[in-house]
Write a structure and sequence with these properties.
By secondary structure, the chain is mostly helical. The radius of gyration is 16 Å and the shape is elongated. Helix 1 runs antiparallel to helix 3 and helix 2 crosses helix 3. It is built from three helices and no strands.
């Protein structure tokens, strides 16, 4: 990580981080709408992986894609 940006700083650094963080959160919201967790307000580990491993279908594939997208954008955000 660059310690002293000096004159190399541009506002795009902030905007890129903001965009990646927002996309990570939006994919988590998509996951909440896809799974519809019972008796809890938000999807947690147990609900997500139960839905992921329940059966091999198109919805399980989409859950895996959403999880990978969340990991990717979270990593880019940091």
């Amino acid at each position: 990580m660059i310690k002293s940006l000096g004159e190399k700083y541009t506002p795009l650094y902030f905007l890129a981080s903001l965009g990646n963080g927002g996309l990570a959160v939006s994919f988590y919201m998509y996951l909440n709408f896809m799974i519809k967790p019972p008796n809890v307000p938000m999807a947690n580990y147990d609900v997500i992986f139960t839905a992921l491993l329940k059966d091999i279908s198109i919805s399980s594939n989409w859950i895996a894609v959403v999880l990978l997208a969340m990991i990717y954008f979270s990593y880019n955000h940091i």
